[in-house]
Design brief:
- It is a single chain.
- The protein is an alpha/beta fold and 398 residues long.
- 36% of the residues lie in helices and 14% in strands.
- The strands form 3 sheets. The protein has a 7-stranded parallel β-sheet, with helices on both faces. Strands 12-10-8-13-14-15 form a 6-stranded parallel β-sheet, with helices on both faces. A two-stranded parallel ribbon has the order 9-11.
- The N and C termini lie far apart (47 Å).
Length: 398
């Protein structure tokens, strides 16, 4: 039911206008009674769907610091009963308490949005948005054709600190979200720090956790979000344009293929017929674990390319619908100019076979890609919390 209501809200401008008018009137009344407090920091990740990503990295760093010891750290989530990893203070993002805490919070930390399509932020609330990926496909006002006739209120103008990992994406966000230079913090994404600072023994541990033979090469297929196919419950269903049988048959026993779909996508059960040769890891909570054990990444227009490039490992772009996708959604650049690319399964398998024979040229292309699109990385968590600490308590607070 919640899913269907959310879908109608996003696609029906009349329903959204009613929600916007009554919601903001309700918030106006609440703000009379509830005032901002300096000891509350409110977190969410992907609109409350998870406790992970850069907000969780910042949460852990903030917890370590004595200067924040009197602060109440609160997570807003959609489903309180299915929270992993466990955290101390949790509230439902669909509750009145959430709006009360949001109004009272000194700091918001999210990787998507906190405002629920409303005017929720107080002028003295510090809004930190870590964002969730470098864009390849068009965003905001740059989108060529919108799938809906209107756009729910964007709140990027209200952000005080917005994390970026390159000049490339900063220029895009300035235009797409009408942001200004002073809003950006050039430190990278906290979630990516681990990709530069992990212990090699972790690879075996992660594979063991996933029941993957330690000697197998791992191919991760992680396509971008495509909302075109839905079922009777309103769920977005993955339309897999990827011949698992052919891949498994061709690559043999030395490889295992992992499928990582977008978190909003429902994935039918593809795994049972392929035993230890194919594994759906869409629901696995820690994406960095998957990137660390992956030997070859296959994607299309997803921001995962930018993060994975920090590992200097091979990447392939499987862009079977390039012309259609570019026309419908719009792209900032042609990924085929940077990475080995395939437009069908035969070409994809040929590229994987070539990678087996000589991976050095693939790795070199990854390194060139990374230098072009990812400038700031490695210590984003500490730098961000340092900046936030100074922002709240003033210079010299450390």
């Amino acid at each position: 039911m919640k899913l269907k209501i959310g879908s109608k809200l996003k696609k029906n401008i009349f329903i959204y206008r009613i929600y916007f008018a009554f919601g903001n009137f309700f918030l106006f009344i609440m703000k009379i009674f509830y005032k901002n407090k300096k000891d509350i920091i409110l977190f969410n990740s992907f609109g409350g769907k998870k406790i992970d990503d850069s907000p969780f990295e910042l949460y852990q760093e903030i917890k370590k610091r004595d200067i924040f010891k009197n602060c109440k750290l609160i997570w807003a989530v959609e489903d309180i009963d299915q929270v992993t990893p466990p955290v101390e203070n949790i509230i439902s993002i669909n509750s009145i308490k959430f709006f009360k805490m949001a109004i009272q919070s000194k700091v918001w930390i999210t990787n998507s949005s906190m405002q629920r399509g409303l005017i929720l932020k107080n002028s003295d609330t510090i809004y930190l948005n870590t964002w969730h990926g470098t864009p390849m496909k068009n965003m905001g006002i740059d989108i060529v054709k919108k799938e809906q006739s209107f756009q729910i209120r964007e709140d990027k103008k209200d952000v005080d600190l917005f994390l970026v990992q390159s000049s490339y994406e900063k220029e895009i966000f300035e235009n797409a979200f009408s942001m200004s230079e002073k809003q950006f913090l050039n430190v990278g994404y906290p979630r990516n720090d681990r990709l530069l600072n992990f212990d090699c023994t972790e690879v075996s541990d992660i594979k063991k956790r996933l029941n993957i033979n330690n000697n197998k090469k791992v191919i991760l297929y992680a396509p971008t979000f495509r909302p075109e196919v839905t079922d009777s419950e309103g769920r977005i269903v993955m339309d897999l344009k990827f011949d698992i049988h052919k891949m498994v048959e061709t690559l043999g026993e030395d490889f295992i293929i992992l499928l990582r779909a977008h978190y909003e996508t429902y994935v039918p059960n593809f795994s049972d017929a392929y035993e230890d040769k194919f594994l759906n890891v869409t629901d696995y909570t820690n994406l960095n674990d998957l990137l660390i054990i992956t030997d070859l990444l296959i994607s299309d227009y997803s921001s995962i390319f930018f993060d994975y490039s920090l590992l200097s490992k091979p990447m392939i772009a499987y862009v079977y619908d390039f012309d259609e996708y570019r026309l419908k959604r719009g792209l900032y650049f042609d990924i085929r100019e940077f990475l080995p690319s395939a437009k069908n399964m035969k070409e994809l398998i040929d590229l994987i076979i070539n990678y087996q024979e000589d991976s050095s040229s693939y790795i070199e292309k990854t390194k060139i890609f990374q230098k072009q699109f990812v400038e700031w990385y490695g210590n984003a968590t500490v730098k961000t919390v340092d900046f936030l600490q100074n922002f709240i308590y003033g210079k010299g607070s450390g």
